[in-house]
Amino acid sequence: MSKKTTIYDIAAKLNITAATVSRALNGNSKISESTRKLVNETAKEMNYEQNKLALALKSGKSFNIGVIVPRIDSNFFASVIRGIEEELHPHGYHVIICQTHDQDTVEIENINSLLNAQVDGILMSISNSKLETDEHFQKLLKKGVPLIFFDRRKEISGVSSVTIDDFKGAYTATQHLIDQGCKRIAHLSNNREIQIFKNRYLGYKQAIIDNGLEFDEAIVIETMSKVLEGRKTTKQLLAMEKPPDAIFSSSDFTALGAIEEIKAHGLKIPEDISVVGFSNEPFTRFMELSITSVDQSPIEMGRITAQVFLEEAKNSKKIKSEKQVILSPELIIRDSSLKSTIVSEK
Amino acid sequence: MSKKTTIYDIAAKLNITAATVSRALNGNSKISESTRKLVNETAKEMNYEQNKLALALKSGKSFNIGVIVPRIDSNFFASVIRGIEEELHPHGYHVIICQTHDQDTVEIENINSLLNAQVDGILMSISNSKLETDEHFQKLLKKGVPLIFFDRRKEISGVSSVTIDDFKGAYTATQHLIDQGCKRIAHLSNNREIQIFKNRYLGYKQAIIDNGLEFDEAIVIETMSKVLEGRKTTKQLLAMEKPPDAIFSSSDFTALGAIEEIKAHGLKIPEDISVVGFSNEPFTRFMELSITSVDQSPIEMGRITAQVFLEEAKNSKKIKSEKQVILSPELIIRDSSLKSTIVSEK
DNA sequence: CTGTTAGCGCTTTCAC
DNA sequence: GTGAAAGCGCTAACAG
């Protein structure tokens, strides 16, 4: 438990002052080469290590940034965080993780606690909640702490965001199904108060309309991103008078449930019913009947979110220009929707 | 960008001293009820918020703990981190994430950088490397910073660890295959310089021997935890003069590769060849032919790791009693190894 | 009960 | 080129 050595210790040993040591260590220009060398050497000798906490208190920069996500054990969020960490690490930043579990009270609490910890910025995906107030976000802005949304954003003036084009992803997926000859495409939706789900719905709808197909609200069902919910909902669809010949799901998990249910009914995929999911979760690739899905390039999203932060951090004092990066999603076509015999991407 | 209010601001306003404010805010016993109330009110009015950085510098406790993992976008590590975060959060700790990508140089760098950031402890899974030196770990111990290993540990006196009983997990899995009538069980192993893989190998071997089966080193193959590697290795196995009738893999990914390869050879699972994986990755459950695997209860592992840390943090000054928690793995039997007609867990 | 003082470790004017 | 001194925001020992 050896006490940590400070610049005072090494100053004392060298009969100089702490200020000089500090300067020498920081490569200040006006310091003699000899003392610089001496200081550096003894610093190494005494195993000196800078206390970032003191620096942080002094400078007001902690070099910590907070990342808030609903939960971390989802491939999507974990991958985004990976991207963030990899991008920020070379710049000396540490990444603090908080989970909200989709509870807005926890979200607010997390923001406050990160603020107390003096983080230099907050990158977050908002929780799935009905909360109307912007108060906690405004507080961040007022304090001048950069706030950046990724994926699940909220429309707030002055706040940058990095998202994918969910509309386009959904449109492309639906168009693909139509190109495969599907005529009655159902949509498994989700809480449409969240932008991403709303946009997926809108993209789907637009593709239907643009292709002159009948848009039928009856086969758009709001459900939750769970395998079992997917099964239940699909059961409803199959029991209809005019069942669909394709399902576009806003989640890979409900898509999986749909597939299970369709098979249980003795129907063939993709011949009888085609299925497309969203998110490109790892398992969609591993399935024997692999699932077509929309990739969101989460690592890339994380990296870019980090870059946007770095930029804002640099221009701290200037007018904060709100920046909205919209990534392009990629449709990964696999077995569950490919009727032709051409070999699909695996 | 309103300047943050400090206790001095509120002291000034009330014509009292900062110390008093501090005491009032912290519920010090010897303070008049009236001033306490007054302070608390004006604090709220002025939107006062404690600067944890100053507290940290003063007290030497940052209430940050570092978590180092090879990578975060693996379900296992993400789940462990989830457990850690959930357990530590109520105690006021923040979790800082670092990734090593299995490079020991990065591991050392991460430890140093966390140390500079004055974390109150480090929880980690060591990287897959051949590094022999303990130097960086000893440094932590010398500084009195609690260090706790989870899953991938190293034998270091004075360092606690939370792991699962890999030997038992492997033994149980192998025994299960034997119980299903398998007589020639291959093992897809991994770098056995890492304890977990070594123990899985040893558990497998022991089960073979205890059941009077022939132990054949020729069907124990060291490979990497990738689907494609699993395919390659399985191809080798199937080409042998005496191919195995079961495969116990130390990884779910190689198990998946094995399954793909076995099917490609027109063989039936589990009738011709049974397969068991390790880790209970989410996809093993989702497969149409679901994969038997050994569950490591990662969230639980994270929670317990956090608890061990909290305990050590409490007894900081006392003799640090090294603690080794060994969790019991659970075999989840699914389609890939269940020959009987009983319905398996899905 | 409350004020005074000092100090956590570092950087940064301002002198010399 | 280097020293002296102040200050980041907070707490705690010592007075009174």
SSE map:
2 copies of one chain form a homodimer.
Chain A: H1 7-14, H2 18-25, H3 33-45, H4 52-59, E1 64-69, H5 75-88, E2 94-99, H6 104-116, E3 122-124, H7 135-143, E4 147-150, E5 160-164, H8 166-179, E6 185-189, H9 195-210, E7 220-222, H10 227-238, E8 246-249, H11 252-264, E9 274-276, H12 282-286, E10 293-295, H13 298-314, E11 324-327, E12 330-332
Parallel strand pairs in A: 1-2, 1-3, 3-4, 4-5, 5-11, 6-7, 6-8, 8-9
Antiparallel strand pairs in A: 10-12
The structure holds a DNA duplex (16 and 16 nucleotides).
GO molecular function, one term (chains A, B): DNA-binding transcription factor activity
Organism (chains A, B): Mariniflexile litorale
Keywords (chains A, B): DNA-binding, Transcription, Transcription regulation
Short characterization:
Chain A is an alpha/beta fold and 346 residues long. Chain A has 13 helices and twelve strands.
Structure description:
2 copies of one chain form a homodimer. With 346 residues, chain A is of the alpha/beta class. Chain A has 3 domains: 44 residues, lambda repressor-like DNA-binding domains (434 Repressor (Amino-terminal Domain)); 137 residues, Rossmann fold (3-Layer(aba) Sandwich); 146 residues, 3-Layer(aba) Sandwich (Rossmann fold), CATH 3.40.50.2300. The first copy, chain A, has 13 helices and 12 strands. In chain A, strands 2-1-3-4-5-11 form a 6-stranded parallel sheet, with helices on both faces. In chain A, strands 7-6-8-9 form a 4-stranded parallel sheet, sandwiched between helices. A two-stranded antiparallel ribbon of chain A has the order 10-12. In chain A, strand 6, helix 9 and strand 7 form a beta-alpha-beta unit. In chain A, helix 5 runs parallel beside helix 13. The C terminus of chain A is likely disordered. At the A-B interface, helix 4, helix 5, strand 2, helix 6 and helix 12 of A face helix 4, helix 5, strand 2, helix 6 and helix 12 of B. The first copy, chain A, binds a DNA duplex (16 and 16 nucleotides) through helix 2 and helix 4.
